[in-house]
Amino acid sequence: MSPPTAQAEPHSGATQDDLRFVVSEAQKVQEADVEAWAAYRFGRRSEREDYDETGQVVGREELDFVVTPDAGGFREELVRHNGLAPDPSEREHHLRAGSFERHYRTLVAGVGEEREEGGYSLGQLLHLSSYRFAGREPLNGVDCYRLDFSPDDVQPRMGGLAAKFTKAMAGSLWITVEGFHLAGAKAETVRPISIALLLSKVYSIKVRMDAGPVGEGVWLPERVEVITNARILIKSIRRRNLYTYSDFLHLAPPG
């Protein structure tokens, strides 16, 4: 069975067999790429901006980490906080928190309730029940298949909070023609989502991910952006989180 051709028309030129083939290959490749992440040391930057009701920035934080595989997990060393060297208590706090490791475990498991770095959604976007082929389209200079989805298509293969989000999301995935790597994804909610017995409501979330090759035939995320507008109890949250990954170094296995 061959993947869709360059002449395929958006939405109608590819058969269901074509789509199933591309999605199946992309699922397997993404799982292998995510698993391979555990062999890389890399830099991770977390940037957060909080906004008031008028859109003015009322809070900002930048955290820079060096993340190293360690004993079946990751050691996350904070090296800069808002451009300055962190104090020992900050370093220890983030070592214990293990934010990236929680995100990574969500990606590996394919399910999870955490929202750090979009893991609750990006980890699910290749496991929906239906997609529409939108043709071949370059992304960041790489030839890709573009697959679109919308809430009407989506019957997610998971439950809980992840299901609520994916049932309300529309977006696109870009799968590399060569290698079937997930090169990019974007998704946004098209209706509000009530959670926690209606005590909290997410009015909107927009997620964007771009990935690239890091060596050894592996593609990993380079940039993840999450824009959130929500209410948690009586507190309004308007926030932009940007996570960037760089300086990937493949580490040889011990011994």
Layout of helices and strands, plus pairs?
Layout: H1 16-36, E1 40-51, E2 57-70, E3 73-81, H2 88-97, H3 99-109, H4 119-122, E4 132-139, E5 142-149, H5 160-167, E6 169-176, E7 182-189, E8 193-195, E9 200-215, E10 218-232, E11 235-250
Antiparallel strand pairs: 1-2, 1-11, 2-3, 4-5, 5-6, 6-7, 7-9, 8-9, 9-10, 10-11
Summed up, what is this model?
By secondary structure, this protein is an alpha+beta fold. It has helices spanning 16-36, 88-97, 99-109, 119-122, 160-167, and strands at 40-51, 57-70, 73-81, 132-139, 142-149, 169-176, 182-189, 193-195, 200-215, 218-232, 235-250. Helices cover 21% and strands 46% of the residues.
Describe the structure in your own words:
The chain is α+β, with helices and mostly antiparallel strands. The chain has five helices and eleven strands. It has helices at 16-36, 88-97, 99-109, 119-122, 160-167, and strands spanning 40-51, 57-70, 73-81, 132-139, 142-149, 169-176, 182-189, 193-195, 200-215, 218-232, 235-250. Strands 1, 2, 3, 4, 5, 6, 7, 8, 9, 10 and 11 form an eleven-stranded antiparallel sheet that branches. Residues 1-12 have low confidence and may be disordered.
Question: What is the molecular shape?
Answer: globular
Q: Quickly count the helices.
A: 5
Structural class, from secondary structure content?
alpha+beta
Biggest sheet architecture:
11 strands, antiparallel
Alpha-carbon Rg, integer? 19 Å
Mean pLDDT: 84
Q: Cα distance, first to last residue?
A: 42 Å
Number of strands: 11
The share of residues in helices is 10-25%
Order of helices and strands: HEEEHHHEEHEEEEEE
Strand content: over 45%
The low-pLDDT segments are: 1-12
